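can u do me a favor
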């Protein structure tokens, strides 16, 4: 029994010395933390007006707040809906509706998630405008 205790103590001591002596300290892992990419800013839409038979491109950009994102529409979007080129924000209301607003926060269009990848205008009532994801 005494021999077994001495052998166990010697084994533990040699294991401890082996782990300290002759081994380098672990280097910093070269893996980059935060390596999961954040969704790239920018989501493009083709905006069309079926009555006027016009279309243009717009982009929903980086997040401004918990509910809103930047929004830009080209000058030719005014042919799709008056004042649409002045749009600056995309504001999600949390009820399925989104307000596309100008720099003062005034609503230009209110859209709702439609079928598939499209948004359909619900306000103003006479806006026959759809936004289809172009990405």
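np, heres the sequence
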């Amino acid at each position: 029994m005494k021999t077994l205790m001495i052998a166990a103590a010697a084994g533990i001591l040699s294991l401890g010395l082996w782990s300290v002596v002759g081994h380098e300290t672990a280097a910093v892992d070269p893996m980059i933390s935060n390596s999961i990419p954040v969704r790239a800013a920018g989501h493009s839409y083709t905006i069309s007006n079926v009555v006027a038979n016009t279309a243009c491109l717009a982009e929903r950009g980086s997040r401004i707040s918990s509910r809103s994102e930047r929004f830009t529409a080209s000058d030719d979007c005014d042919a799709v809906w008056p004042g649409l080129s002045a749009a600056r924000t995309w504001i999600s209301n949390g009820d399925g509706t989104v307000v596309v607003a100008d720099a003062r926060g005034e609503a230009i269009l209110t859209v709702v998630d439609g079928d598939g990848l499209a948004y359909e205008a619900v306000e103003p009532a006479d806006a026959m405008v759809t936004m289809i994801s172009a990405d």
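The chain has a mean pLDDT of 82. hope that helps!!
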